[in-house]
């Protein structure tokens, strides 16, 4: 089907728990080895249960840096904010001790903040775990098909960490990690739920055309190679 490792679970709640256990093991090992760890998460509707499962894990949260692969250009109080999703579901209880790096500023448009937010991420280095979601149009992070920012966002030689995006259809301007920043990770996970997304994943695996379905760029990657977590 693809070069990726496709893991199937019987339900979304089982997936959330199993993925939380796998991510926790990597982060604990990183903290034991290097004294610190880093986790990049995605937003949208998919990861809420995973975030809630993670928040209960025994991690030295004060040694963990967390940020987002992308966010919508709205205040953190907005219901569409990925930042808000992370704050309300992941950074709860002991997990609130994690160092969270937001991608959104008070600038009018993300293009005005690419430089300053890239500086916030300057010390991130190779992250321990990067988790991507995927939209029904095959986008990941905020790298959308039919968008003028897709090509520069996917350019592995751009040298850029972030890109400001005006999605052609989806609401809100975005700040998104670029593909080279996304691929600078020790572990790459893709979190998918539902038959519709599985069908899109399989279509992207067959077509291998990131311009039509951007997730094809992730599927094609051999290093890092993605582990896909899927449940119906
Ligand atoms: O807009 C976004 O969409 C993708 C997928 O979201 P989902 O609602 O289909 O789970 C998400 O991964 C990304 O972080 C988000 O900003």
First-to-last CA distance: 17 Å
The CATH architecture of the domain at 5-139 would be 3-Layer(aba) Sandwich
Strand residue content: 15-25%
Q: Enumerate the strands of the largest sheet in spatial order, edge to edge or round the barrel.
A: 1-10-9-6-2-3-5
Largest sheet: 7 strands, parallel
Q: Helix fraction?
A: 25-40%
Question: Which overall shape is indicated by the principal axes computed on the Cα atoms?
Answer: globular
Molecules bound to protein: ligand LXAUTJHC
The number of E-state strands comes to 10
CATH fold descriptor of the domain at 5-139: Rossmann fold
Rg calculated over all Cα atoms: 16 Å
The whole-number mean of residue pLDDT values reads 97
> Total helix count?
8
**Low-confidence runs:** none
What structural class is derived from the secondary structure elements? alpha/beta
CATH class of the domain at 5-139: Alpha Beta
- Which H/E pattern describes the elements? EHEHEEHEHEHEEHEHHE
Structure commentary:
It comes from Congregibacter variabilis. Its EC number is 3.1.1.31. This protein has 232 residues and is of the alpha/beta class. The chain has a domain at 5-139: 3-Layer(aba) Sandwich (Rossmann fold). It has 8 helices and 10 strands. The longest helix has 23 residues, at 12-34. The structure holds the ligand O=C1O[C@H](COP(=O)(O)O)[C@@H](O)[C@H](O)[C@H]1O. The ligand O=C1O[C@H](COP(=O)(O)O)[C@@H](O)[C@H](O)[C@H]1O binds at residues 42-46, 69-70, 82, 133-135, 142, 170.
């Amino acid at each position: 089907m693809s070069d990726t490792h496709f893991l199937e679970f019987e339900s979304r709640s089982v997936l959330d728990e199993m993925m939380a256990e796998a991510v926790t093991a990597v982060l604990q090992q990183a903290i034991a080895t290097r004294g610190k760890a880093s986790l990049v998460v995605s937003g949208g509707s998919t990861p809420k249960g995973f975030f809630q499962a993670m928040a209960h894990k025994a991690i030295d949260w004060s040694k963990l840096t967390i940020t987002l692969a992308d966010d919508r250009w709205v205040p953190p109080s907005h219901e569409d904010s990925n930042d808000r999703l992370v704050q309300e579901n992941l950074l709860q209880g002991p997990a609130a001790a994690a160092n969270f790096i937001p991608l959104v500023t008070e600038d009018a448009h993300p293009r005005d903040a690419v430089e300053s937010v890239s500086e916030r991420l300057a010390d991130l280095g190779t992250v321990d775990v990067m988790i991507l979601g995927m939209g029904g149009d095959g986008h990941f992070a905020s790298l959308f098909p039919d968008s003028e920012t897709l090509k520069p966002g996917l350019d592995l030689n751009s040298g850029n960490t972030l890109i400001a995006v005006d999605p052609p259809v989806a609401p809100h301007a975005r700040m998104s990690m670029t593909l080279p920043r996304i691929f600078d990770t020790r572990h790459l996970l893709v979190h998918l739920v539902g038959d519709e997304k599985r069908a899109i994943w399989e279509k992207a695996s067959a077509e291998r055309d990131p311009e039509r379905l951007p997730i094809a760029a992730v599927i094609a990657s051999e290093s890092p190679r993605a582990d896909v977590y899927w449940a119906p």
